[in-house]
Structure formats: C-alpha cells, structure tokens
Amino acid sequence: MEKQPGSALGVFDAGISLHQLVNNLVNESLSTAYHNKTHIVNEVARDFVLGKDNESVITVIRDLLAATILNSNNGEIHISAERYSDVLILLIEERNNNNGFALSFSIGSIEPEAARAGGHISIEGARNKRTLISFSFPVKFAA
Q1: Are 76 and 94 a contacting pair, CB within 8 Å?
Q2: Phi and psi (nearest 5°) for 100?
Q3: Computed from CA positions of residues 16, 18, 21, 23, in that sequence, does the dihedral angle turn out positive or negative?
Q4: What is the residue extent of each domain of the chain?
Q5: What pLDDT, in 10s, does the model give residues 54-112?
Q6: What is the model's pLDDT at position 8?
Q7: DSSP one-letter code for 141
C-alpha cells in the first residue's frame, strides 16, 4: 500500500492547522537544520485549518521547506502565512541567505509541482542576504 503524502500528518481525518503542518514538516528536516546551524521560526497563525483535499499542496510545502533548510548555512528562516479569500500565501523568509544560486535552482525545480497543485511560487532577492519565497495556492479550508 502506497503511503499518501498527508496521511501521517492527520490531514485525511479532519484537516490540520497549517501551523501544525509546518511544525510537522520542519521536524522532518531538523537534523539538517541542526547540521547547517539554522534557526527556524514558525509564525503561521494557528487558525488556518486546511481541509482534506490538499495533498498536492502539502507536497509542495514539504519540498519548499526542505529545499530552504537544505540550502541554508547559519540561517534564520521565518515561516508565515496570509489569507486572501480562498487563497493562502505561505511565506518563507531566509534572513541570512548564503547560498542563493543553489536555493534558486532548488525552488525552480519545485515550480512545476506547484503549478499542478494550482499554485504559484515566487522568489524575491534570491541572491541577497534576505530572500523571500512565496507559495500562493487556492485552498479548501476545513469546515
């Protein structure tokens, strides 16, 4: 039986808060963050609760966080989100970006996956110390 992307996160049962989802996904990369001496701050509001049918979005979020953490070095990553009607924008800010080319390449490889999920990725300041990655996507919120 193939493991579904969100099943271990409890998404298929009753939805999950985006804050908790980010915590769970960051935990998957904690050893890399520790090795890279990267500090991660989850500033996502706890009231964004994703509904059941967001598996492809979860995969993109997982890949974005993993790529950002993997390409960090003495990093300071802040994760937040903003909601506009039925669109959510996940913001990943690396405040000490030392590896802009690799980060841009890694994020670029995730863009087709984001498009298939109905979303869009943008990266601002990829070759600056402060880099902002945004992933906007239509979302089904839990009732």
Answers
A1: yes
A2: -60, -40
A3: negative
A4: 7-138
A5: 889 999 999 999 999 999 999 999 999 999 988 999 999 999 888 788 888 999 999 99
A6: 47
A7: B
Q: Quickly name the fold that domain 7-138 has.
A: Heat Shock Protein 90 (3.30.565)
Do the Cβ atoms of 31 and 40 come closer than 8 Å?
no
pLDDT at position 87 is 92
| CA 103 vs CA 50, 70, 109, 136: distances in Å | 27, 9, 10, 18
Task: Give Cα separations from 119 to 85, 114, 135, 143 (angstroms).
Answer: 15, 5, 7, 22
Paired residues of 91 in beta bridges: 80, 134
Between the CA atoms of 57, 137, 32 and 4, what dihedral angle is there, to the nearest 10 degrees?
0
d(CA 29, CA 93) in angstroms, rounded, equals: 16
Indicate whether 142 pLDDT > 60. no
Q: ∠ at Cα 20 (119, 128), nearest 5°? A: 55
